[in-house]
Amino acid sequence: MKAMKVVGIIGPYISGKNRRLIDxxxxxxxxxxxxxxxxxxxxxxxxxxxxxxHTARFEKLAQAPESYxxxxxxxxxxxVCKGFILLPDWVGSEGARRDYKRAVDQGKSVFPLxxxxxxxxxxxxxxxxxxxxxxxxxx
Length: 139
Hints:
The structure is a single chain. This protein is α/β, with parallel strands linked by helices. The chain has helices spanning about 20-40, 50-55, 60, 65-80, 95-105, 120-139; strands spanning about 5-10, 45-50, 80-85, 110. It has a single domain (about 5-139), classed as Hypothetical protein PA1492 (Rossmann fold, 3-Layer(aba) Sandwich). The protein is globular.
């Protein structure tokens, strides 16, 4: 079995601390990660790390400052993630722009998702599969 490649999910989360928008951002990230899990469950080619669901609602539940979560994300991104998915509207998020710059500076693969429409998600999944299979050939 081929080694799993893990992609990090980059996209908006806080959205002005508006609870409805935060929940919307979490739901969008979860929607994409479910699609990844469904597509790659058998082949195990692609896995994911989504801070949106990993520490969902911790801004209310925990007392740690945001800098703690940035450091946690960075540690996981740096040691586990080989590529990143840019969720729609990522450019409007300071944290997402920071994560994108870090990924590019490290030479990691970046995959923009155009929209949450099924056809765009399927194109992304196809691209992830090709990326994983082609990078396996390079090893």
